[in-house]
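Posting for a labmate who doesn't have an account.
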Amino acid sequence: VGGEGWAAEEVFKKSCGFSLKEVVFLPGTFHKQAPDLTSRITKNLKLNTPAVSAGRCTEEGMAMALALSGGLGIIHREMPIKEQAMKVQRVKMYHSGFILNPACLAPRHTVQMAIDLQNQLGCSGIPVTENGRVGGRLVGLVTKRDVEDMPRTAQLNSVMNRDVVFAQEPVTLKEAHLAMQEAKVAKLPVLNKDMELVALICRGDMKEVNKYPNASRDANRQLMVAASVTAHEPDAWQRVQAMVEAGADVLSLDCHEGVDHYVINFLKQMKEHFAGIDVIAGPVNSIRQATSLCDSGADAIRVGGAKGADATVIYEVARTLRLNYGIPVLADVEVRDSGQILKALLLGASTVCLDCMVQRCEEVPGDLIFREGVRVKLGRPDGGADGTTFRSAAAAVETGVAVQQIDRGSALGYVPLVLSQLRKGLQELGLEALSDTSKALDQGLLRLELQCGRAEPPQAPKTFPIMVSALHC
């Protein structure tokens, strides 16, 4: 159709594959109201925004920032199992309102143990029960103020606060908030009729809930978080069990080494033992791989690895899974700006990995220095030839050249900016909600043009070579 572009079906029926840089969507009638960005991360779970991070840049800090922004962080597996489980627990315990599994201590424990636990979890108040576990009879509450300047070997029964204000279950967050205001306390244990601890409510958490109304939270008002696992390591099943016990809402099964019988059998075993946990499988770059994983029980498919043909792969895989399985697609195609995010979503993806965009945020592990008056981060680029991790049965070997990249600040400020640009793009296309994209694409309401061979290469972030002698000049 001259001057009006092409329908997606007409474009992608051609034998060649297209990248996101070669596909252009034509604007439609401008929609005034802000579009709804609610999207599905799996067939059973929804996010308020389609922002996901799944690379080595995602640890507890990035996972918290994305969850507070309405997205989801997948904590990478390039670390010991215990360390990964601890990072999942930190996300679940961050500003959750009702804490159903609070860390507890017993009266016989020492002040040093209380200080170590407070530093480890980043909390200030710890309930003290008779047996040191949730479900035990509450005998006191110890805070940082109680253990300050106290002998490290002193037992908690000599320093804890025994006059504890508590709430009796059942209680709502609103009722708990009023009770905390009247008693002027920051921690409110929730007890059952036998005076046993069942939950803990923190005032700071409740304030944070109001600050981020669009945050991704589970049924217990805790932040949602995912964890990466794999079938190709000796302790693979132990990692899965540890992530489930730590409270991960979603497991991401890594298929970077291919979809073989090990992956298929491992996925079936995961769904058999943990049917209540949704599993994202991938990355894949063909319909046969995707359907094989869906037949084995995958709740979402991660698409990636199709260099130069990522637009075609997203469209074909997403369309097939949408029509035959009702399973969403996560696009992991190294998007570098909001325009590429919008294209991936319009082509059928439900969510998009922002690894290349958020790897320069301050939540990503790495040292910050000032160079020529600019704050830069030391680290390896996440993805591509640099920063690749080869993992064998013996050890993980990191490769790549470390660089300095200009820091983008906190992801809590950067991700909302990207999402506002995404909303503006949907408005220009005349879409009321992100969920309308698939219908508009299938009906030919979204028109495309191609710019083969004329796409400009993406601008690489400014980097500085690392010279140890110059860092201290």
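Reply:
Got it, the structure tokens are right above this. The longest helix spans residues 411-429.
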